[in-house]
């Protein structure tokens, strides 16, 4: 197994910090055991042909089980297509998104010198076909304009005047190739779609925060989903509204496929004399639930952990009073809360005995969302015909049975069983997410619908009606529209027939901005691409299973990646995620966001159906 990385630094136009970005990443990765480090700094290496050749060689030389990092620092561009090209290619994205090579300005109407997001996505899919351990880090942005930040900072975006015809033709030619980010790639991006990434005279703010955060947690097994919160806090201290994000399987440990058993982490903000757990209500927290506060060490102040109770719920957030002796002003970067005990707990009946029962009860006692119960149990753990089973109240197995564990295997088996039960409990919680109604979101006519393809591959969709069923292989999409006084954001969530939760729009966990309708200043629309229903291999093909789709619409960004389960359970192609570099920041201001920001206001639209198991092949006689 080789740990290899491709680092590209295209220091074009007025950028000055790209070279240092690449140097920092080269040192950081070398210090973590990366022995095959390919660095592209020179103009010939960072031109379009040089970048294309570097990616080709990376794919050709990557072997099974390798750890791979792709890093890019430089300009990114998001160009609107001229009306004539949009009419010529209906159904194509309205913008051309690409990385900016060093020979960008040499492009012509027949030779586009930009590395398209579709091209990068195809490279990443080629890599994950070889090895699952792929991380992509992008320190650039896609703003269509060029503005200036306070002081000496500059934005890593560029308004291009080069012809785009050849770029559009290349994009159309890639239509049969995968256009969307591979859900198995960890993606770390410096900002969001239409957003900006800053640098100072030395280097990019995102790369600096990334390197410092990785050093802070060098000796601790902390996943990307936790690290990105600290990276955001550090970037935010620069007094810019740059919003880094992490997509894909961000529950992994850095540069690894290992996923630690991490409970849900909710970011903390100061709220007057109290604390605000951002998004706590969406995670099922209510008044009197207990949480554990984790405040990292910061400067001269040591790290602190303490338990507290939820005192109130404000829209999507949960409020609590800090326990005595816990300083919270200001909060250290990366502070978060962990649920300890919640009001709604999944009831489990244990029908096994001996050491396995003792191990299960010990783990249940420490789970915030599970409790043992004989009456009204939603799940049961039992042994039948020498196999360990976890079933629902109707007797259908949640997963395929496994052999009864021997004495040495009991701890691991108990960990797997309780982990599965917590997955089911998370799915139930998400299915029960309620809509606060029109007063929950500042919009007068917000509406949404689910559409299902009439027959496979037809691209003809009909509206899903309450009571309709779904079949394996069906594809659905979601449409939303409405008027709003502020920029609305959407998240597409799902609870699959396996019970796993999924953030379908996983590439933009902080939310996708709805687009303004043509000619309407306050009218917004959004449509996902088709999402396929499939039957996971680890779920027995017996009995109809529930499938739920939820659309969350909010009035600001919020990282909902903790809502997603660790396992992939569906294949999705949201059209708004037409490129790896998509994200959600609407603009830049020259002030720092306040820790006392108002709670997220939101609406929830949900659709529930049952899915029949696929027909089983005839058994061989």
UniProtKB/TrEMBL annotation:
A Pfam family per the record: Peptidase_C14
InterPro entries reported for this sequence: Caspase-like_dom_sf, Metacaspase, Pept_C14_caspase
Signal sequence annotation: none
Annotated region described as Disordered, given as residue ranges: 240-259
Domain Peptidase C14 caspase: from-to ranges: 3-244
Entry's transmembrane regions: none
Protein name: Caspase family protein
Native source organism of the sequence: Streptomyces tauricus
């Amino acid at each position: 197994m080789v740990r290899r990385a491709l680092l590209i630094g295209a220091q074009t136009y007025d950028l000055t910090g790209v070279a240092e970005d690449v140097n920092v990443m080269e040192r950081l990765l070398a210090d973590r055991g990366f022995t095959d480090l390919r660095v592209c700094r020179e103009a010939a290496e960072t031109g379009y042909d040089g970048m294309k050749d570097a990616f080709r060689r990376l794919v050709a030389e990557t072997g099974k089980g390798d750890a791979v990092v792709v890093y890019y620092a430089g300009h990114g561009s998001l160009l609107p297509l001229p009306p004539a090209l949009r009419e010529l290619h209906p159904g194509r994205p309205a913008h051309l998104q690409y990385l900016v090579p060093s020979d960008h300005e040499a492009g012509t109407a027949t030779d586009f010198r930009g590395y398209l997001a579709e091209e990068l996505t195809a490279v990443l899919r080629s890599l994950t076909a070889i090895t699952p351990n792929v991380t992509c880090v992008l320190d650039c942005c896609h703003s269509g304009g060029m503005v200036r930040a306070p002081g000496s900072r500059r934005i890593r975006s560029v308004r291009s005047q080069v012809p785009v015809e050849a770029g559009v033709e290349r994009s159309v030619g890639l239509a049969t190739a995968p256009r969307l980010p591979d859900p198995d790639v960890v993606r770390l991006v410096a900002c969001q779609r239409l957003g900006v990434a800053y640098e100072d005279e030395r280097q990019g703010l995102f790369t600096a925060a990334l390197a410092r955060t990785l050093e802070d947690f060098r000796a601790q097994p902390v996943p990307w989903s936790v690290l990105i919160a600290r990276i955001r806090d550090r970037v935010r201290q620069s007094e810019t509204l740059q919003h880094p994000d992490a997509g894909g399987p961000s529950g992994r440990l850095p540069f690894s496929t290992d996923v630690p058993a991490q409970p849900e982490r909710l970011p903390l903000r100061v709220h007057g004399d109290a604390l605000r757990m951002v998004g706590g209500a969406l995670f099922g927290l209510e008044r009197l639930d207990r949480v554990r506060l984790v405040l990292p060490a910061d400067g001269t102040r040591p790290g602190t952990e303490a338990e507290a109770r939820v005192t109130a719920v404000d829209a999507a957030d949960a409020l609590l009073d800090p326990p005595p002796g816990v300083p919270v002003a200001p909060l250290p970067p990366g502070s978060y809360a962990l649920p300890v005990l919640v009001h709604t707990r999944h009831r489990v009946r244990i029908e096994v005995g001996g050491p396995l029962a003792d191990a299960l009860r010990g783990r249940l006692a420490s789970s915030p969302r599970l409790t043992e119960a004989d009456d009204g149990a939603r799940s049961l753990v039992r042994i039948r015909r020498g196999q360990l089973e976890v079933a629902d109240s109707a007797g259908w197995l949640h997963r395929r049975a496994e052999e009864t564990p021997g004495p040495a295997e009991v701890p691991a088996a108990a960990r797997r069983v309780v982990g599965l039960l917590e997955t089911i409990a998370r799915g139930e919680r998400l299915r029960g997410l309620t809509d606060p109604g029109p007063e929950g979101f500042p919009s007068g006519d917000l509406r949404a619908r689910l559409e299902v393809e009439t027959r496979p591959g037809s691209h003809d969709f009909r509206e899903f009606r309450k009571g309709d069923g779904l079949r394996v292989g069906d594809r659905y999409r979601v449409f939303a529209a409405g008027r709003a006084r502020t920029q609305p954001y959407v998240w597409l969530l799902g609870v699959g027939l396996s019970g796993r939760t999924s953030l379908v729009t996983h590439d933009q966990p902080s939310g996708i901005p709805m687009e303004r309708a043509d000619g309407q200043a306050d009218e917004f629309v959004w449509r996902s691409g088709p999402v396929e229903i499939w039957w996971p291999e680890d779920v027995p093909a017996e009995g109809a299973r529930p499938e739920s789709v939820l659309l969350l619409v909010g009035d600001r960004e919020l990282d909902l990646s903790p809502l997603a389960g660790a396992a992939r359970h569906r294949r999705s192609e949201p059209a708004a995620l037409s490129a790896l570099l998509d994200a959600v920041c609407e603009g830049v201001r020259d002030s720092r966001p306040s820790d006392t920001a108002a709670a997220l206001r939101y609406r929830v639209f949900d659709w529930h159906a049952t899915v029949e198991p696929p027909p089983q092949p005839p058994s061989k006689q």
